[in-house]
Amino acid sequence: MDPQFIITAVLLIIVLTVLARGLRIVPQQHAWIVERLGRFSRVLEPGLNILIPIVDSVAYKFDLRESPLDVAKQVCITKDNTQISIDGVLYLQITDPKAAAYGTSNPLMSVIQLAQTIMRADVGKKQLDEVLSSRSELNASIVSELDRAAITWGVKVLRYEIRDITPPKEVINAMELQITAERQKRALIAKSEGEKQQAVNVSEGERQQQINRAEGAKRARILEAEGQAEAVLTVARATAEALATVGKALSESGGQDAMKMRLAEDFIAQWGSIAKESSVMIVPQDMGDLSKAIGTALRITETVKSAA
Exposed, middle or buried, 24 (CB in 10 Å: 0-12/13-18/19+)? Predict the structure, then answer.
């Protein structure tokens, strides 16, 4: 083989290799940091970029999309000296590739370490119950402090979510007992409130029943009294009318004789009834003679008339 051909082929391959190294295609939502002779030169944008071979080199490559990072579980001590294990998820995004490349040696690790430090400090300011009930407050506090500190690293902290809070087993057992006691307490309170309300309802019902009975008895007595009064008035009116009729009849012709006859009949009838109903009877001396009895009745009538 011709040595000249071999040399030409080798030179061609070298040239193509150098040229290939000078052409770089950057994906969308990515940023590459270019250094020229070891010094920062520029940030390559997405698309085709041309570099000077040997002089320019890609030192850092960053993904500009939002990235979730696991924050490893760590032990924190609360204000009431309770050890709890907390882990979470951190969501961040690189917004300044140059600051991310030269602000810290590892921006992602720096943010994670700072998140753990802030978490331990915030947990140490709260009681255990406050930590368990204020996850959103802890999340917001960590995001706020991280965002201020990570600006110099070219990182934007978007969210932090506590994934799990694990107290010691003894604390968990105590919390379960406390929850059970609270539930039993609420159940007893609810039961007592129900019994109290039931007693109030029963007493109110009995009270209303007694009031209704009293009102009914009162109304019945009023109606009875009104009925009796009406009856007395009716009898009185009937008696007055009867007396008026009798008086009018007596003033007419023959009225006196009819009155005498009526009195005699009533007299005889009354003594006859007494004789039927009783086995022993005291009678006037002249009751054996009917004519004398009639005369006695007439004398009584005259006596009544003279008295009138």
Answer: middle
